[in-house]
């Protein structure tokens, strides 16, 4: 991946009762927030290790939050579709180069995957990374356009299909399908795929503690 593409991470601040609520139960709200924090850190590590024109963290509560090597921006909009669209717009307004956007739900993300997506975006108008639940874990646009995102129904089995439909008329490269961490089964699957992550270590520790 060249340095002509910027990477945006769209995330929630990891606060108990605010993130990863579908992990509760079996995990407590505090434990779910700890897993979310590790997933975010793993994601930021992968982005930091990927050559990029800029690295941006778009956070729902950005007050006082800092991340080394990242520009932290406050999210705008009501629904997730609007927050996604405006994260693209705000990043592009600061630096008018292609944008790759990922969430914080795939701690198995690697610099290699991001580099492949960035290289694809140099040859296509858009890059799309489908998720196993029917959504998507990555979206890249050479030139952001809110009309391509606003109004797409979120958190549904057809979210990915509808987002792809909105990209009609563009050349689109597709990335491998990844599993988002939504519930405990997803967490175990992802930890098994990426055993050396912070996320996997915390999941293993919580499992050991609950077995005592």
From TrEMBL:
<protein>
    <recommendedName>
        <fullName>Glycosyltransferase</fullName>
    </recommendedName>
</protein>
<dbReference type="InterPro" id="IPR029044">
    <property type="entry name" value="Nucleotide-diphossugar_trans"/>
</dbReference>
<dbReference type="Pfam" id="PF09837">
    <property type="entry name" value="DUF2064"/>
</dbReference>
<dbReference type="InterPro" id="IPR018641">
    <property type="entry name" value="Trfase_1_rSAM/seldom-assoc"/>
</dbReference>
